[in-house]
Amino acid sequence: MQLLTIFALLCLLGPTLSTRAQEERCRRRAKSAKGMCHNEKEPKLRFTYNPSTGKCDHFWDLSCDGQILNSFENFTECMTACNPDSKCLATPDKHFQFPRKTSFVFDINIMKCKPEKSLRRPSIGPKINRFLKENDCKKTCEPRLIQIVTSSG
């Protein structure tokens, strides 16, 4: 009977405990690499979640001393782990009939906001990937990306 009670408690608390671990991982802001490791390991361009903006940004991950918790291979993986309810992850709804009104949607494939036209005033809200102003879309969804400049000698 005690074993059954413990099992029931774990089932009830399981999602809470995993959410807490997820939040802890995402709260630890990663610091961008400033140099090289002693083993001459080169930094990698990855994504880290910024809790103050609610979105993921590029950073140089060096991980000299092991794995950095708040470090993700790509933008989608980062946002899914740290802000799964973000409207930026939602697939924008399509309006095809005689588009007239312009609004903006975040395209996760190119990580940019783009204009889209619709027949009627677009629906906006906390779960809908659609913005009336381009700047609102950029501020909410577009990550801060690091541009790599190379010269061809």
TrEMBL record:
InterPro entries xref list: Kunitz_BPTI, Kunitz_BPTI_sf, TFPI/VKTCI-like
Pfam families per UniProt: Kunitz_BPTI
Highest rank taxon of the organism: Eukaryota
GO MF annotation list: serine-type endopeptidase inhibitor activity
Keyword Signal: yes
Signal peptide span: 1-18
This protein's record includes keyword Methyltransferase: no
Coiled-coil segments: none
Gene3D superfamilies: Pancreatic trypsin inhibitor Kunitz domain (4.10.410.10)
Annotated ranges, domain BPTI/Kunitz inhibitor: 26-82
A GO cellular-component term linked to this record: extracellular space
Record keywords: Disulfide bond, Protease inhibitor, Serine protease inhibitor, Signal
This protein's name: Putative tick kunitz 1
Species of provenance: Amblyomma americanum (Lone star tick)
Phylogenetic lineage: Eukaryota, Metazoa, Ecdysozoa, Arthropoda, Chelicerata
